[in-house]
Amino acid sequence: MLNGSLALPFVYVIAGFVGLAWSADRFVAGSAALARSLGVSVLMVGIVIVGFGTSAPELLVSANAAWQGDSGLAVGNALGSNIANVALVLGVAAMAAPLSIHSRILWQEIPLCLVSMLVTGVVLYDLEITRVEGVLLICFLALFLTALVFRGHRERWDRYSMELEQAIPAGEPIGRALVWTIVGLVVLLFSAKVLVEGAVSIAEAFHVSDLVIGLTVVAVGTSLPEAAAALASARKNEPDIAIGNILGSNTFNMFGVVGVAGTIDPSAVDAAAVHRDWPVMIGIFMVFAVLAWSRRTISRLHGAIFLCLYAAYLAFLALSAPA
Fold first, then answer.
1. What's the pLDDT at 85?
2. Where on the phi/psi map is residue 171: left (φ > 0), alpha (ψ -120 to 50), or beta?
3. Nearest-CA neighbor of 159 among 53, 94, 237?
4. What gap in Å lies between CA 231 and CA 229, rounded to an integer?
5. Do 227 and 32 contact (CB within 8 A), yes or no?
6. 66 is in which domain, residue-wise?
7. How far is residue 130's CA from residue 268's CA, in Å, rounded to a whole number?
8. Residue 230's CB: how many other CB atoms inside 10 A?
9. Whose CA, among 123, 231, 289, 323, lies 20 to 30 Å from 82?
10. Which residue spans within the chain are E strands per DSSP?
11. What is the CATH number of the domain that holds 94?
């Protein structure tokens, strides 16, 4: 049974998870509807708002952690979320419905996502992230977005664009969309702060590193919006949206989340993040990339394999944790 000193941090974490899941959904839906009502192209809405908007929890949680000097939690959240997005979220979505990849845009986004992971690995290799490196990662994100949007405009009849056209209808009243966007953002900020405070307190109470808490509890919690979006898209037979959200989120986590954390709090990086967790992230993503390129479909069997890989990673974390 939890004593009084631990009960409150656990309440904070649970409340933070619930707040992040609800507010991220409201923020993405509101901002997507607002952009569509203002005449922004569906592709821009899908790539920038829907694809990266689901990573708002990771960004705000890591920014809060960096602001409080908990760089281990910030970096762990980014790496752990990428691992969870592919091994856990994609695995669960594929178990719900096989995910066939049709979009030419997504075929081009897969190697770009891998590049973002490799570039971040180079930045973290010396076990330190400087403010200059953080700003550089953010600049890479801007370049990535620009290239993706230009490429998308050349593929107007791409399957991804067609799925987005159906999933993000226009016509939502601007006033209501604006209200939901603001409410979602405010609750996101508050939930991220509450979650970080609770997670840090739990880590201190159980003598677990901030990195491990960020890789596991916080990473899974901040991946809830991606999980909800992927499951919904899989059930609606919109596989390209499901995979596009995961690819966009992973790229944003590397360039945006790590970049913002490094810009706010330049600091040393735990060696385990570079020597243990980064290779796991690359390895799991390469499994996805090989399956995607060779099979063109992530089947239920592949989903089960990803879930087993995630379970194995959690066991590996538990065994490698210091006694």
1. 93
2. left
3. 237
4. 6
5. no
6. 4-320
7. 9
8. 30
9. 323
10. 99-100, 128-129, 267-268, 297-298
11. 1.20.1420.30
DSSP state of 62: H
- Residue 82, token pair as written in the block: 């990428």
pLDDT at res. 118: 97
Task: Enumerate the β-bridge partners of residue 128.
Answer: 268
**Token pair 């590996």 is at which residue?**
316
∠ Cα 273 274 278 (to 5°): 80
pLDDT attached to residue 198: 85
Q: Are 96 and 235 in contact (CB under 8 A)?
A: yes
Q: What is the pLDDT of residue 58?
A: 85
DSSP annotation of 156 = T
- CB count within 10 Å of CB 118 equals 13
User: Number of C-alpha atoms within 13 angstroms, CB side, residue 238?
Assistant: 20
What's residue 105's pLDDT?
A: 72
Q: How many residues in total does the chain contain?
A: 323
Profile the chain (323 residues) by mean pLDDT over runs of 10 residues: 69 86 80 73 66 77 86 90 94 91 80 94 94 96 80 63 66 80 84 82 82 87 79 80 85 93 92 95 96 89 96 90 58
Report the C-alpha gap between 44 and 32 in whole angstroms.
10
Other Cβ atoms closer than 10 A to 157: 7
In sequence order, which residues have a C-beta less than 8 Å from that of residue 197 and are 6 or more positions away?
A: 9, 12
Our count of domains for the chain comes to 1
Query: 192 by DSSP, 3-state: which?
Result: helix
Res 1: pLDDT: 40
Two tokens at 159? 């399957």
Contact 99, 242 (CB under 8 A): yes
Nearest to 213 by CA among 306, 116, 311, 79: 79
Return the closest-CA partner of residue 287 out of 314, 308, 318, 258: 308
User: Quick one: 5 exposed, middle or buried, by C-beta within 10 A (0-12, 13-18, 19+)?
Assistant: exposed
Place of tokens 């192209």: 41
